[in-house]
Amino acid sequence: MVAVADEGFDDGNRRIPSPYLTTAAATAYCGFKTASALRKAHLEGKVHPAGKRGGTGTWMWSVEDLDRFLIGLPPRDSVSAGRPGTPPVGGQQDSRIMPSTT
């Protein structure tokens, strides 16, 4: 389902829907009248934008994440599985920085 006709990419032969929607298109996709409901859901941690277009432009929203929100599922983790998080405390780096007290 594509919410707004101008979202997506046309390769000349067929329309390829984008997996990302602008805030305006995401608002329509969710059935909201204004973007404030989507912003409120974001502030409450119920849905997260995928990022900003070009890093500085409008917020972009994943259709997959919006679908999860609409059926009441929690948002996906922002760090993908298998991706390392912060380094553990007490690792090799700590022993080189702090001298041992023993």
CATH topology of the domain at 19-76: Multidrug-efflux Transporter Regulator, Chain: A, Domain 2
CATH architecture of the domain at 19-76: Orthogonal Bundle
Instruction: Provide the spatial order of strands within the biggest beta sheet.
Output: 3-5-4
User: Biggest sheet, in brief?
Assistant: 3 strands, antiparallel
β-strand amount:
5-15%
**Span between termini:** 64 Å
The geometry reads as extended
Work out the helicity level.
25-40%
Q: State Rg.
A: 20 Å
Q: What is the mean predicted local confidence, pLDDT?
A: 79
Q: What is the strand tally?
A: 5
Top CATH class of the domain at 19-76: Mainly Alpha
Structural class: alpha+beta
**Topology as H/E string?**
EEEHHEEHH
Total of helices: 4
Q: Unreliable runs, pLDDT <50, ≥5 residues?
A: 1-6
Give a quick precis of the structure.
The chain has 102 residues and is of the alpha+beta class. The chain has helices at residues 23-30, 36-43, 63-70, 92-97, and strands at residues 9-10, 15-16, 20-22, 51-52, 59-62.
